[in-house]
Write a structure and sequence with these properties.
alpha+beta; Beta-lactamase Inhibitory Protein, Chain:B, domain 1; 2 domains; 4-stranded antiparallel beta sheet; globular
Length: about 170
Amino acid sequence: MNLASGMRDRLLALASGLALLAGCAGMPESVPPGSTRAQIEERLGRPTAEYRLPDGTRLQYSRQPEGAQVYNLDLGPDGRLRSLEQVMDVAWLARIEIGRWNREDLLLHLGRPALVEQVARFDGDIWTYRVIDHVWRRRVHIHLDRAGVVQQVMYTDEPMPDDRTP
């Protein structure tokens, strides 16, 4: 191996390593506990939403409408990360309480939906989020009545990109 070839290989390896590290920088799950808001925003950018909690602040990083993740990063009163949770998970979504949760609860926990629709058979809005159920891309449809209270939660499969309707 000559000197130029060896140097080129080392530079390619270094560039690949830096690209991998840069990719991790945008991954909320890689933010260490105890990070400050400034450190979080340096890694992830500005949150898609922010909510005041009784004992701190929630920074929300949503990949909706195209992605299937919503990350809630909760900061304590000291401004440091105390918990991080990805909530677009079927097990997590089972926490939604029919007849009790409302629009504000959905925004606080799930953020803005990927889609808001109405149908003739329901008097209210249907908020749709993308979610991954194990390996399957799905949609969760949350029916809110006119008062903004959750009345139903249902799932549908998301069509594959190459599905064609005959």
